[in-house]
Specification:
- The complex is a heterodimer of chains A (about 190) and B (about 200).
- Chain A contains 3 helices and 10 strands, in the order H-E-E-H-E-E-E-E-E-E-E-H-E.
- Chain A is α+β, with helices and mostly antiparallel strands.
- Chain B is built from 3 helices and 9 strands; from the N terminus they run H-H-E-E-E-E-E-E-E-E-H-E.
- Classes of the chains: A alpha+beta (about 190), B alpha+beta (about 200).
- Chains A and B meet through helix 1, helix 2, strand 5 and strand 9 of A and helix 1, strand 4, strand 5 and strand 8 of B.
C-alpha cells in the first residue's frame, strides 16, 4: 500500500511539474519570426498552428485573427535586446508600414491596458505626424506626457498591429521595415 | 534499474504527459472561461436594465429569457484599463461579441458597415479563427453571415454568406476600427444595431 502511494505521489509530482512547465511555456512570447525588437507569429488563429503556438496565442492574444486580416508583432525588449523597464525612457521610430492601418499599443505585464488620465494607450497611423522623410517617432515613459504611457514600475510590452497587411509583408515578414526602439536612459 | 532511476523515469514520464495535456487543453479551457464571462456579463447587464425599467432591445430580451447571454449581440464599450475580460484589446477598435451556441440551430450575425475597416470574425471552441468577413469583400451596407453546424440543412436556404462552424460553441467578434475620433459616436450607434441570433 505504501509503495503504491509512493508511485502515485511520484506521478502526481510529475504531472504537476509538467502542468506548471506548460503554463510557463504558454506565457513565453509567441514567435516564429524575429526582427529587431519584434517577434511575430503568422500563425495566430490558424488551424495549422502547433499546440504550443496555439496555447501561447490563447493566453496572450485570445481572439487574434489570421494573418490575411492582421499580423501581430510583440515586443518585450528594445532593439538592443534589453527587457523593457518602466524606470527607463524609450523612443520608438518608424516609417510607412505595409498595411492598410497600423498601431502600437502598450500593455502591462498581465497584458491589459495601463491606467492613465488621458486614456491614451496607443499610437497609430492616424495619430502620428510624419516628418518630411515620412518618418514618425513616439516617446515611451512612465509619465502622463509620453505618447505611450508605461506603468509606474516594472515590465511592460508592446503590440504592433498591421491590419490588412500587404501580401508581400506576409510572404517574408523578416523583410519588413519595423519600428526601432531605442532606450534613452533610466532613472 | 535502481529505485532512484525508476522514480525519476516515472516523474519524467508523468511530467511529459502533464505538459502535453495542459498545452492541449489550455486553449479550449481559456475559450470556455471567456465564453462564460462574456455571456454572463451580457446577461447581467440585460437583467439589470430589466430591473431598473430601462427599455430592452428585442435582442436583449432574448438574452435574458433564453440561455442568458448566448446567441445575443454584446456591444462592448471602447476598451480602457478597466476592461479585463480579454487580454490585449486594442484601444482603437470598437468590439462587439456574440457567444454562439448552434445546438438549437443556425445563428445569423449582421453588422452595419462604417465606411472604414469593419469585420466579423468567428472563433471555434479551440480558438481557431475559422471565418472572417471584412469591408473589403462585402458589398452593401451590412456585413452578414450565417453560422451553422455542418449537419444543419436549414442554413442552406438562408441568403448571403454562410459558414459551417467546426464546433458547436464559439465566439464571434465584430471589429470597427476607429481611425478618427470624430467617427466614434456614429460607430457606437451602428454598434447598437449589430444583431446576432437564431435564424
Amino acid at each position: 500500500m505504501k509503495k503504491a502511494m509512493i508511485w502515485v505521489g511520484l506521478v502526481l509530482l510529475g504531472l504537476a511539474i509538467g502542468g506548471v512547465s506548460a503554463i510557463l511555456a504558454a506565457r513565453q512570447p509567441f514567435g516564429g519570426v524575429e526582427k529587431g525588437a519584434w517577434t511575430a507569429s503568422i500563425e495566430t488563429g490558424s488551424d495549422k498552428a502547433d499546440p504550443w503556438t496555439r496555447a501561447r496565442v490563447a493566453v496572450q492574444a485570445l481572439l487574434a485573427m489570421t494573418r490575411d486580416q492582421a499580423v501581430y508583432f510583440t515586443s518585450h525588449h528594445d532593439s538592443e535586446g534589453r527587457a523593457f523597464d518602466a524606470a527607463c525612457r524609450y523612443t520608438i521610430r518608424g516609417g510607412d508600414h505595409p498595411a492598410r492601418w497600423w498601431s502600437v499599443t502598450i500593455y502591462d505585464d498581465a497584458y491589459f491596458l495601463i491606467e492613465n488620465e488621458a486614456k491614451r494607450y496607443s499610437v497609430t497611423a492616424a495619430t502620428l505626424a510624419l516628418d518630411e522623410a515620412g518618418r514618425w517617432s513616439a516617446r515611451i515613459a512612465a509619465d502622463e506626457k509620453a505618447d505611450l504611457i508605461a506603468p509606474e514600475s516594472g515590465a511592460f510590452n508592446l503590440i504592433l498591429r498591421f491590419y490588412h497587411p500587404e501580401p508581400g509583408a506576409l510572404q517574408d515578414p523578416t523583410a519588413l521595415s519595423l519600428p526601432v526602439i531605442t532606450r534613452e536612459g533610466c532613472a | 534499474m535502481s529505485r532512484l532511476s525508476q522514480s525519476l523515469l516515472v516523474v519524467l514520464a508523468a511530467a511529459l504527459a502533464g505538459h502535453l495535456a495542459v498545452i492541449h487543453l489550455l486553449p479550449g479551457f481559456i475559450m470556455s472561461v471567456a465564453m462564460e464571462r462574456i455571456s454572463a456579463g451580457a446577461a447581467e447587464t440585460a437583467a439589470r436594465q430589466l430591473e431598473d425599467g430601462s427599455a430592452l432591445r428585442p435582442d436583449q430580451n432574448r438574452a435574458v429569457t433564453a440561455r442568458a447571454g448566448w446567441n445575443a449581440p454584446i456591444p462592448a464599450p471602447r476598451a480602457d484599463h478597466t476592461q479585463r475580460y480579454v487580454v490585449r484589446s486594442s484601444a482603437d477598435i470598437l468590439y462587439s461579441a456574440c457567444v454562439f451556441d448552434l445546438a438549437a440551430g443556425p445563428v445569423r450575425v449582421t453588422a452595419p458597415q462604417t465606411g472604414g475597416y469593419a469585420s466579423i470574425s468567428a472563433f471555434a471552441a479551440n480558438t481557431d479563427n475559422f471565418f472572417v468577413l471584412d469591408d473589403r469583400e462585402a458589398t452593401g451596407e451590412t456585413l452578414s453571415v450565417v453560422l451553422h453546424r455542418p449537419d444543419q440543412a436549414t442554413a442552406a436556404s438562408a441568403p448571403g454568406p454562410r459558414t459551417a462552424a467546426p464546433s458547436q460553441k464559439g465566439i464571434v467578434l465584430v471589429r470597427y476600427l476607429i481611425e478618427d475620433e470624430a467617427d466614434l459616436p456614429d460607430y457606437v450607434e451602428k454598434q447598437s444595431r449589430i444583431t446576432c441570433g437564431p435564424l
